[in-house]
Design brief:
The chain is of the alpha+beta class. It has two domains: 171 residues, no CATH class; 111 residues, name from scop, CATH 3.40.1690. The chain is 69% helix and 8% strand. It is built from 14 helices and seven strands. Helix 7 runs antiparallel to helix 9.
Length: 358
Amino acid sequence: MANDQNEKTEEATPKRKQKERDKGHIAKSQDFTSSLMLTFGLGLIFVMGKGMHEKLSSMLTNTFLQLNPKNISDTDAISILAPYLEHYADIVLLFFAFLAIGAVVILRFQTGALFAKEALKPNFKKLSPATALKNLIDKLNIFKPKQLVELTKSLLKTIIVATVGFNVIMKRKDDLFGLIGADPSTGFSVIGSVIFELIASICILLIIIGIIDRYYQTWEYNKSIKMTKQEVKDEWKNIEGDPKIKGKIRSFQMKIMQQKMMSKVKEADVVVVNPTHFAVALMYDPQKVPAPVVVAKGVDFIAFKIREIAKNNGIPIVENKPLARSLYKLVEVDQIIPQELYTAVAEILHYVYTQKGR
């Protein structure tokens, strides 16, 4: 039994998951992120490459046609290079801006809205030489299950990517051999198409590998945060014993009870008030109960709400200070009034019924 209690067989509770998330411990696949980033970058090059190539070609052409060697000076290199750096920044800045936005979106897609506040706290133990040495030894120890899995994944990715690359090149070998003696523009076009096909094939393959790794990392993460039966019991005890949680539960229960109570005011026969501090709603159905029943009661704000509901629904409101106080103190909601109050309540009900013609 002791061993069963210590075995992590239970799925992590929402509180445990949130605690791990606050520490920055989440299921995340680096392969999945890298594959999406590579694919997104290739897509940007495909969309923006032509415009970037034209601008870069124009800059280089103008440079070689208009640059006068006599104007070049070792002391004024910055003023000469500055316009070209500015022009180059204009060419690539938009590309890198889109790439940065894509990186944020891809990370957000995988991790969600993550703010690891615990991870931001300084941990000086990580800076100690002993800890750094231990971490290094753990990473170099390929016989540990985690390191062994990562090593196997790396070898498999290398083999698969190399195989795909070899197949693409062999499929286009006739085009590549046909470049012998061809003009440079044709050579660049063919080589560019081969490279694009090669990278596109690798991207598709890496995305598939990334999706598989994402599922594996999620499974591994859920396994790592599993809890023992005792931990689950202790957590529920802490939750039940937390004053804040208890306060919220009580507040929620009171709110539900008040809503239920207020809904019964519409069915009341009369509301007895004091005249502002106390309000008690009474209902009498001789076929169901032997005496009138208190269906709602309250002081101050609750009393005001009872009176307001009564006015809106045409329920008679009768002022009787002693009776209102007695009903509030002696009778709970949904209880029959005591015998000592029969006469006073009967007089009020008789008055109300007479006004209604009953």
